[in-house]
Write a structure and sequence with these properties.
Number of strands: 21
Strand order of the largest sheet: 3-2-4-5-6-7
Strand content: 15-25%
Bound molecules: S-adenosyl-L-homocysteine, iron/sulfur cluster, FE3-S4 cluster
Structural class: alpha/beta
Length: 471
């Protein structure tokens, strides 16, 4: 694999804009506005990428629609993290044979993390002839070229070269939500946790220049955005590949200096690199949300070593304890994998005891899924599936009880929340820690910070009433 980051030049990007112009002219000649549907699977990184895919489509004259039926272009932006995620994509891709039969001019594209796996692109080549284009995340910046080639040559396009990855500034974006924005600060991952496919499909870690990130954040805040979530697989190693000497904490501090009323969130932090400087920076700024997603994966030091996580149980607990000591109201969430190859009952119990000790606000829980090409996929795994399911259910029950207990304690509190939308007849809002609150109120309040008195709680969310207190 080539390990050098490619910086996409302005000239290369202008060429892509020129392809957008050609596509525009193509549809103008046919005298109609084409439509496009983008379906997103997986994590926030993919959500952010889909905003760029839509940006390019709109730039090329397409109107974005909400279903594949009848659309002139369908783009499936896929996730490879677990077997189940891939099966869903193949199922939905199969169903597109019908939409294409009803609309033979439909062009279908598969991109995202699955497109970075050779076994997937081979299968698409062989068994999914209705797919017109397949491109990995490294080639997203070339989407207009791929789309134009499909339209003009009628030939299938595969842009799947195995590359270290690139950084492209200036791709147009169509954002989903004017109040809340994703901002990628880095791409790829160097950690090679033994179970994980991400480093193989998204390439090596590479950071965007600080000035580009700051300019994007300034522009968002000036246009009324209230929450910025900084994205990266391991945000704590931001800047290590740059010569600027800025680390993640410095970046956070600089963004928080931008004038305006807004909150900064970020994900994901790797416990190996998250430390005192980060937590002190968070504690010092009212604009940095007191929310931390710090995946622990397992409570057993032996399993953590086999996962290649570079910390042990004690170091993890030390990190969390320090974070809580400087931010008493911290909302803490995490990811955990049950049934890693060779995990014993005792090791699983260590995971349960860590959860009891830390008391997370909520957890994202996964059963280990072997990914071809990763070291863990070939590790001996004697635990039967039923046993893994039993462990998984037990873990979820423990966490649900803790989430409920933590939520109960919100009752009676009056919290400043961002009103961000509606759910049936209710307004939805988020606390600073990111917890969901529902309350009755006027939808005209969407986009403002308001105080809400919490009156009820469930495992997943809170309910409340709007207070007159000034935000
Ligand atoms: N970069 C982030 C995680 C990205 S993937 C981090 O390191 O924390 C999101 C979560 O998916 C991981 O934290 C892990 O819990 C889970 N995951 C990744 N690969 C998996 C696999 N092969 N089987 C089950 N869960 C997995
Ligand atoms: Fe995967 Fe580990 Fe990288 Fe997260 S840090 S993306 S789990 S390899
Ligand atoms: Fe999935 Fe890729 Fe994200 S594998 S979890 S979409 S980085």
């Amino acid at each position: 694999m080539n390990t050098k980051t490619t910086v996409i030049s302005e000239a290369q990007l202008s060429l892509q804009y020129a392809f957008c112009d050609k596509i525009n002219a193509y549809w103008l000649q046919q005298n109609r506005t084409p439509t496009a549907y983008v379906e997103t699977y997986g994590c926030q990184q993919n959500e952010a990428d889909s905003e760029k895919l839509r940006g390019y489509l709109v730039q090329s004259g397409y109107a974005i629609v909400t279903e594949a039926e009848g659309a002139d272009a369908v783009v499936m932006n896929t996730c490879a993290i677990r077997e189940h995620a891939e099966q869903r994509v193949f199922g939905n891709l199969g169903a597109l044979t019908h939409t294409k039969r009803r609309h033979p001019e439909q062009k279908i594209f598969l991109c995202g993390c699955m497109a970075g796996e050779t076994k997937v692109s081979d299968r698409i080549k062989k068994s999914y002839p209705h797919v017109d284009g397949c491109f990995s995340t490294h080639h997203l910046w070339q989407f207009p070229e791929i789309l134009w080639n499909v339209l003009s040559t009628k030939k299938r396009q595969f842009y799947i070269a195995d590359e270290a990855g690139s950084i492209a500034e200036g791709i147009p974006q169509v954002r989903d939500n004017p109040l809340k924005a994703w901002v990628s600060i880095m791409y790829g991952c160097n950690n090679f946790c033994t179970y994980c496919i991400v480093p193989y499909v998204r390439g090596r870690e590479r950071s965007r220049r600080k000035e580009d990130i700051l300019a994007e954040c300034r522009c968002l805040i000036e246009s009324g955005c209230k929450e910025i979530t900084l994205l990266g697989q391991n945000v704590n190693s931001y800047g290590k590949d740059l010569e600027e000497g800025t680390d993640f904490s410095d970046l956070l501090a600089e963004i928080s200096q931008i004038p305006g009323e807004f909150l900064i969130r970020f994900m994901t932090s790797h416990p190996r690199d998250a430390g005192k400087k980060l937590f002190d920076t968070m504690a010092a700024s009212p604009k940095i949300a007191k929310q931390l997603h710090l995946p622990f994966q397992s409570g057993s030091s032996r399993v953590l070593k086999a996962m290649n996580r570079h910390y042990n149980r004690e170091k993890y607990l030390e990190t969390v304890n320090y974070a809580k000591s400087v931010m008493p109201d911290l909302v803490l969430t995490s990811d955990v994998i049950v049934g890693f190859p060779g995990e014993t009952e005792e090791e699983f119990e260590e995971t349960i005891s860590l959860i009891e000790q830390v008391r997370y606000d909520s957890l994202f829980t996964f059963i280990f899924s072997p990914r071809t090409g990763t070291p863990a996929a070939t590790m001996e795994d004697p635990t039967p599936k039923e046993e893994k399911n039993r462990r998984f259910d037990r873990l979820c029950a423990v966490q649900n009880r803790i989430s409920e207990e933590i939520h109960e304690r919100y009752i009676g509190k009056c919290l400043c929340c961002l009103i961000d939308g509606t759910d049936k007849e209710f307004l939805t809002a988020r606390t600073e820690g990111g917890r969901l609150v529902r309350c009755a109120g006027d939808p005209a309040l969407i986009g403002s910070y308001r105080h809400i008195t919490i009156t009820g709680a469930t495992t997943w969310s809170l309910t409340g009433t709007l207070s007159d207190k000034e935000a």
